[in-house]
Amino acid sequence: MTWTLVSNILLPTFTWPHRVLGSVALASSIPPAPQRAHQTIRRLVGFLPSYLPRLSRRYCTWVGIEFKNQIVQLPFGIVLKWSDGTRLEEVSAMMIARSAGVPDLGLAHKHLNEKELQTISNEMHAMQIAMQSWPHPWGGERICSVMGTSIRSAPVPNHSIGPCESESKFNDYLPSVASEYHSPSRDVFEQRLACVRKLHSVHHPIVFTHGDLKHHNSMVHNGHASGSINWESAGCERALTSLTVDSYAW
User: Fold this and answer.
1) What is the rounded distance in angstroms from the CA atom of residue 164 to the CA atom of residue 10?
2) Which residue among 27, 29, 227, 235 is least packed, with the fewest CB closer than 10 Å?
3) Are 116 and 42 in the same domain?
4) pTM for the full model?
5) Would 91 be classed as within a structural domain?
6) Residue 60 located in a structural domain
7) How far apart are CA 163 and CA 144, in angstroms?
8) 215 lies in which domain range?
9) pLDDT tens digits for the chain (250 residues)?
10) 221 and 114, same structural domain?
C-alpha cells in the first residue's frame, strides 16, 4: 500500500489536487501583484533550475517517456518551463490568476466529445469575461504587464513591446517594425499595412488578457477547464488582442 502510494507520486501521470472553476468565486477586480523576492535571493535560487534538466533526463529514461527541453518533466507532478520567454512577469501573472479564482493546472485530455468541448469553451469564456472586466490597475490606457513593465509579444523584434502610455503610442510602434518578409510582394505588404492602420483608427478598451490563450496553453480535467499555462504575454492590452488571439482558439 505504502509502496503503491509512493510509486504513484513518482509517475508522470500524477497530479496534485487542484481547484476547479466555481469552487472559488472569480475576482471582480485584479488582485495585487505579489511582492518579488530580493534580487540576491532570486539569483541564489536561480542556480537550481540549471541542474533540473539533467535530473529530468534521468527521470524520463527511468519512467520511459520522452525528454523535452522546454517543458521539463520532474517527479512529484512537477514540470519546469525552460525557455527564453520565461520571466518574472509570467510568475506574477500566474499568481494573480490563482488569487483571482482561475483554476490550477490539471491533467490534459486530448480526446474530448462535443459536450465536453462546449463546457470547456463556456468556462474559458467566463474566465475571459471576468478578467476583461477588472479595472485597470495602472489607470488610463497604459499597455503593460501585470508589473507595469513591457508586454511580451512574439511578432515584434526582441519579443518585447512597451510599456506604452496609450493605445495610440502602441499602435504607432507596431507599423514601425513591420516587415514585408512574409508578403509575396510589396503591393500586398502595403495592402496589409493599410488594413492594420484602419484597425488602429478604431479605439479599443484596454483590458487584462492572457495574451495567448490557445488550445496548447489550456489544460482540461474530467471535461472541465482546469487551468492555463504560458502567461508570459499576460497583461493590460487592447481588447482586440483578446478577441483575435484568446477568443479565436475557443
Assistant:
1) 46
2) 29
3) no
4) 0.71
5) no
6) yes
7) 5
8) 103-250
9) 444 555 678 888 777 776 666 666 777 787 777 777 777 887 777 777 778 888 899 999 988 888 888 778 888 888 887 776 677 788 888 888 878 777 655 445 556 778 888 888 888 888 888 888 888 888 788 999 988 899 887 777 778 888 999 988 988 888 887 888 778 888 998 898 888 888 888 888 899 988 887 777 777 777 787 778 888 888 898 887 665 555 444 4
10) yes
